[in-house]
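Incident log, structure service

09:12 report received: a user says their structure output differs between two submissions of the same chain.
09:20 pulled the input from the user's history:
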Amino acid sequence: MDLDVFVTAHRAEWDRLNHLLHRGRRLTGAEADELVSLYQRTATHLSQIQSTTPDPMLTARLTQLVARARATVTGTRRASWRDAVRFLTAGFPAAVYRSRHWWVPTALISTALAALIGWWIATHPEIQSSIAAPSALRDMTRPGGEYETYYSSHPAASFAAQVWTNNAQAATMCLVLGAFLCLPVFWILFLNMLNLGVGIGLMASAGRLDTFLGLILPHGLLELTAVFVAAGTGLRLGWTVIDPGPLSRRTALAQQGRAALGMAIGLALVLFVSGVLEGFVTPSGLPTWARITIGIAAESAFLTYVYVLGGRAARAGDTGDVEEPDRSAELPIAA
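09:34 re-ran on a clean worker, output below:
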């Protein structure tokens, strides 16, 4: 395509569209119809230029023009409580449900890795001695030691807030850094499983694995599930960079990125619940069976929420993306 000829042929349309946009609400009915038609044609022109002879200056000008026209044609919409309710009852659980083929295998493999690390440490005294001195290990694993007092070492409210902040940051890093070909997600997962495996191995070697699990399970089931969901979503985002499927890479990343942003908000709420459990239930004086039961109930409630509400919303076509009027215009790709 000869770019100069193309610009000469269509410049008048672009200038006319720009003139109509400057007139704002003073348009007549016929001019409003003309604006819509010019917006559609200019969007097609932009797509043709991007796919054949991309020119940075012309592309930037037309992109801005199309964005202004779209905002004028579709109008703006303010967020409402209805959006929040839809997000919590459909958008977020649907996004988690649709990404289950990523986060469920991630959870199974990661848990197996933590168990393997724990077994390796528990059965190899030389590995234990490389972690810390024998006296330090005894201080960590003895009754009333560091592993037990960790959960009651700070006021419950501040401890819950600190835990929530740390876990939310880890989940967000998995979601955001997944776009870098998945590699940072693997590293974050490994560090988390290494930390868990060390605790399992040291407490098992001291014959106190039941105590450790009684401290971890009340909050850890929901907490780790949230981290696995974030990691799985990050891996899916990274794979989209490698293989965007039938969509253009930019469009596919935009769709997955918007869904991931919603997932970050939803998982922050899930991790808030986990932080409350870790701050108030784990160090409480409740019997171990009661604390574990609470943790299992919280995990079961989340999975039911995902597979019932999320499954229903996903089958109805919800992808976890924002609603159509709030998305950027997806331009046709010229053959």
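09:41 both user submissions now match this output. Likely a transient worker issue. Closing.
09:42 reviewer note: Residues 324-335 have pLDDT under 50 and may be disordered. The radius of gyration is 27 Å.
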